[in-house]
Amino acid sequence: MSEETTAAGRAFQVDLRGVVDLLARHLYSGPRVYVRELLQNGVDAITARRAHDEGAPGSVRLRPGDDGSLEVTDTGIGLTPAQAEELLATVGRSSKRDLDLGLGREEFLGQFGIGLLSAFMVADQIELVSRSAVDEQAPPVRWVGYSDGRYDLSVLPHDADVAVGSTVRLRPRRDAEHWLGADMVVALAQEFGALLPVEVSVEVPLPDGSGTAWRRVSEPVLPWRGEYADEAARDAALTAYCERTLGFTPLAHLDLDVPLAGLSGVAFVLPTAVPPGAASRHRVYLKRMLLGAHVDDLLPEWAFFVRCVVDTTVLRPTASREQLYTDDALLATQEVLAGQVRAWAVATLSSSSAVSRKVVATHHLALRSLALVDDEVLDLVAQVLPFETTDGASTLADVRGEEGEVLFTSRVEDFRRVAPVARAHGMTVVNGGYVYDSELLARLARRPGWRARELSAGDIAQVLTPLEPHRELEVLDQLRAAQAVVQPLDCELVARSFEPQHVPAVLLQDRDGEYAREVRQVVAADDDLWGGVLSGLAGDAPAPARRLVVNDANPTVRRLFAADPADPVLAAGVRSLYVTAVLLAGEPLRAREAALMNDAMSVLLEAGLAGEQVRDETQEDV
Ligand SMILES: Nc1ncnc2c1ncn2[C@@H]1O[C@H](COP(=O)(O)OP(=O)(O)OP(=O)(O)O)[C@@H](O)[C@H]1O
């Protein structure tokens, strides 16, 4: 074996173009992040300088040049020639790492030692001129890196016109000039650096063309930490901040605070309905530098109705610095944040405030749909969302509190049908006929601690009192005649006495055939005479699906049952009772039922007019 092939301890060669390509295409989401990396180096350098000199100036200034270049100047700690040689010439070398822990030091944004390379996504040459703030004896240094992997380093004369700190100068790549243009630089500096605690400014041309000015893009204080005259002023400032930054006027906002993660911020409630699956897109700042505007693993999916802006000092970034690194700290933080949003939602939505009404009106459908797949949302929905009940609008938790179990109908028509009767008998029935609600109630029935079931014909039958035997006999013929009227309509007619008296009849739907079973049970249990009467009503054939229960306590019905069974007025009266009950149930009238109504009306009118005539004639006689 030759010596060459066995030689040990040789250094790897790095193909810089390959590394830059890797960064640009696979690590960072695009070239725009180069501004973030430069800002970050400036801020870190200021932090390092202030560790020695608390009162040191703190500014990062970006100056787009007429020749398409960009200069970024910071008042940070600077570099000595030796440091520049050590730190800038080696990919992955960083002054910000804790050598014992192998992690980035808490006070710095950078840690990986690759940030400066990102500038090669837009530049083919990076120049850094620097003077150390710490070592006053050290001369200034000029380092120039080229995208082909070479670099030059020169020590400048001690008295050269170089201020303490560093200036990075980028010469644009041929196809990347637009990334260094003034408008783009302002937009990117604002995007990434708006909350940085140092002064970040961009030199922009004045509109009248008379020169240039520095435009500050960073806010000295986090908007939610600022001091305001009162709560209203704070609300207004946060609303304006949300409009500016997230592009919508929030319905409400809530403060977020997780001291263990060094996290604070605000969750803004969206003003328009969004599908629950939509990504959450929270804006996350890490040590006040934008990590990402579309970070979605901050809150669980059920919190889709808020967008957050948060700043954290403890959570860690992934190497791309665009997402949060999933570790125990992030998981614990997510839990605390979810708890805060939930507590707010429960407190706000269970109040009757204007905010609560607006939030419910905007997001209730999405909450309901999410409740079908997420038990946490289901619990929230059961606790705070209003449902239509026979007792007015009420939460499911309240219904359970009052009744012990939740009875519901799964169709709006069913609810309308039974509501007056249930109400009169003090039964609370939930209308589960609206979109998602019956599935939601069925799912709730399987949750521990909940009893919920669909209202059956039997529940209503319980409150409909059968007629006294003598009364049943009294109206037997009329009942038979009435039964014959509705039979062709696939409907059965029975007489009961029930509250409220003003309801002449209700139409019960018995899709599961429960009624038929119930009648048969009653027939089997009754003595011969009454069993015979009832079985006449139930019939041997399978019972029709619908049942018109006429109310013998209602004065109109009683008058009708006083008529001769053969009198056409009886048949007409029964028809109109039937049609009224169909209408009360909220069902549309079919052509046949409309015709029935017309027939009934003309018979009743004729009878009425004939009665008038008789009366008139009698009066004339008198
Ligand atoms: N403006 C600056 N002033 C002083 N030192 C700088 C400056 N820019 C870069 N450096 C030095 O160069 C090193 C490498 O910088 P680079 O941006 O590549 O990585 P980093 O900031 O350490 O980490 P990251 O990859 O996470 O950004 C830094 O650790 C720092 O010591």
Automatic annotation (TrEMBL):
Name of this protein: Molecular chaperone HtpG
Keywords: ATP-binding, Chaperone, Nucleotide-binding
Lineage: Bacteria, Bacillati, Actinomycetota, Actinomycetes, Micrococcales
SUPFAM superfamilies: ATPase domain of HSP90 chaperone/DNA topoisomerase II/histidine kinase, Ribosomal protein S5 domain 2-like
Chain sites annotated for binding ATP: E37, N41, D74
Keyword Coiled coil: no
Gene Ontology MF terms: ATP binding; ATP hydrolysis activity; ATP-dependent protein folding chaperone; unfolded protein binding
InterPro entries: HATPase_C_sf, Hsp90_fam, Hsp90_N, Ribosomal_Su5_D2-typ_SF
Coiled coil: none
Domain of life per record: Bacteria
Family: Belongs to the heat shock protein 90 family.
NCBIfam families: PRK14083.1
